[in-house]
TrEMBL record:
Pfam families: ABC_tran, ABC_tran_Xtn
GO molecular function: ATP binding
Domain ABC transporter: from-to ranges: 2-260, 328-542
Gene3D superfamilies (alphabetical): P-loop containing nucleotide triphosphate hydrolases (3.40.50.300), Valyl-tRNA synthetase, C-terminal domain (1.10.287.380)
Keyword vocabulary terms for this entry: ATP-binding, Coiled coil, Nucleotide-binding
The protein's name in its UniProt record: ABC-F family ATP-binding cassette domain-containing protein
Taxonomic placement: Bacteria, Pseudomonadati, Bacteroidota, Bacteroidia, Bacteroidales
Signal peptide (UniProt feature, chain positions): none
Parts forming coiled coils: 85-115
NCBIfam families: ribo_prot_ABC_F
Region annotation (Disordered) ranges: 546-566
This protein's record includes keyword Nucleotide-binding: yes
Amino acid sequence: MISVDNLTVSFGGWDLFREVSFLINAKDRIGLVGKNGAGKSTMLKVLIGEQPPSSGTVSRNGDCTVGYLPQQMKVADTTTLFAETESAFSEVIGLEREIEQLNREIAERTDYESEGYEKLLHRLNDATDRFHILGGMNREEEVEKTLLGLGFQRSDFGRATSEFSGGWRMRIELAKLLLRRPSVFLLDEPTNHLDIESIGWLENYLKEYNGAVVLISHDRAFLDNVTTRTIEISLGKVYDYRVPYSRYVELRRERREQQMAAYVNQQKMIEQTEDFIERFRYKPTKSNQVQSRIKQLEKIERIEVDEEDLSRLNIKFPPAPRSGQIVVEAKDAGKSFGEKHVFSGATFTIERGQKIALVGRNGEGKTTFARMAIGQLEPTEGSVRIGHNVRIGYYAQNQDDLMNGDFTVFDTLDRVAVGDIRTRLRDILGAFLFRGEDIDKKVRVLSGGERARLAMARLMLEPYNLLVLDEPTNHMDMRSKDILKDAVRKYDGTVIVISHDREFLDGLVERVYEFRDGRVKEHLGGIYDFLRDRQIESMREIEQKAPVVTAEQKPKGPSGKAQYEQKREAEKQLRKAERDVEKAEQEIMALEKEIAEKDRQLADPAAHGIDLADGSFYAHYNELKDKLNKLTYRWEELSITLENLKETLAS
């Protein structure tokens, strides 16, 4: 579909890429990876044609179309959400108008035998065929399904696009791009403005998409779930791995070890050769050998190894001063801004040492609650109380924007540090990858990731016992996120974290509070436990009839199609639920059989050579029974879901 041949891109005499070549095939799922500044975004711009190469070619086959989502873009704000998204079907809309015009002309004509009349009929036939090929009859349903999948509400459809924040306006552009269905998607950090549910929806969409996908992302779980091939950009070259991201990391480690060994051997040989030249340069009897060695050095293709800081950073938050057992207590708490209701009925307690996550769609109140918890906002309903001796460290979502751009990196910490900690500022900055001349850089020239690390470094300056972190991993690369996660995991205080990064939250939090539809719900367990429970709830929600979309929100269209799509989706969920119930029943039967065998052995331990004194038999026996209890509970949930789906389809 797209062929890159001997591509070179240079800036001011410096080669970003040097004679790189690769192919993008139909249905490829490619993750484009590399260090910040390696040229990933530039590569996408070259592929789309925005950045001309210095040499080499990028060619596409005749039918190939490309859809490109950059990290930043301007969004139109002169129409409604639905109308702006529907503009993705510009060709379909144009064909619809042409078909109407052709039908009018044909109705007015009476020269049925003329050549002109026959041309009109042919054109009408061609336009109608093209209209159906492009899915013209289903475009309203497609727009609706895509907008809902990306987190919009039906009540948003009639709102002006100018009313939406930057993150939501980026979703509008993503929706338009998905609906155009190009041959190849080029996506630069598509999950930056999405919540967990929308990311999951986008994952499924891209996995089932009929075209190719090339994406840049710092979301490891997203890369692993979508991609099957990884192209790494390093030192102006590309390395192609036919595996997802996590497997690529392993293979890259092996390649780097081989590369380092070859580099060390070459350096040793170069050093020995240079030493020979220096020792015998002025001896006439050795002149031939010296010249031979000089030519040998000139011909060597020097091995380059991408610089990598392999030192294990030991970032630790200061020990948390002891707080009261209750750190944050919410009782029927709620918040409204004027007529806009955000959420209500939040009742829960966060205790000392707990690490909890706040999740939900954007605009549902996660950041609002975080600001109530730290005292920046007052609830309009109920109460939010901070416990005894709670000292709060807050990382705001726009934390990097709150720093003075004219200060240097060092000044940013020095101006807020007090006491003995000031003697350790360079060590703290070094731990966050600011070394040497980096500490004298002005904040305004830092990248997004550097600003995020600097803001996090400021939290190290005081001993807090409650950390409230609002999207702390935005703009961070993989390694920085791993370092931060390790530090938060080892922190002995209480943590409230807002994040859509599943990989970051996995193994970090022990309970999840979901903000959804104006309410707050507690889910015990980690982030993947929550996502599994949420999927079950979503299946139950299928039985609820969708709210009616008003004429202002949605253009007129065939009413039966939406019902058909809804029924087809329900049938799909029904088949999945039947498989899940059947699988659970088989597992229960296998466990019951194993437990029955244990009961038989217990009846006569000696006959079966079992020593009950060591306790291992009972431990395994109890483990099986506990597993059976959990599986039975799971089967009950799945059975209820299945019955609900059957009732929905029957009604």
